[in-house]
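Moderator note: this is an archived Q&A kept for reference. The question asked for a predicted structure of one protein chain; the sequence and the answer are reproduced below.
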Amino acid sequence: MKVPVQPISEAAAYSETIGTAVDVHRLVSIFRRRLKLFVAVACLIFAAAALITFQQVPQYTAVARVLIDQRKQQVVAADQTVMSGLPDESGVVDTETEVLRS
């Protein structure tokens, strides 16, 4: 009595050969057969990530601080001019602060 031979699945065939050696050609052929599936899954994941990203509401936040020290300090030589020559009045400082904010 003959018993019909059943085809071995790829996983079973792979597990049988893993004990002895890895057949690179067999792995490449399996990869080539499944290439369309790999590409389809990658495209689906990319499309889902792009869809989620573009549907989110953009959030723009920024924080800036300007410290204005009105104390007179001699940082450079007396004959060099670094500052703009504006007076140290609070109105002038407020105007310069508004220019920096814009």
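Archived answer notes: The helical segments are 10-18, 24-33, 35-55, 90-101.
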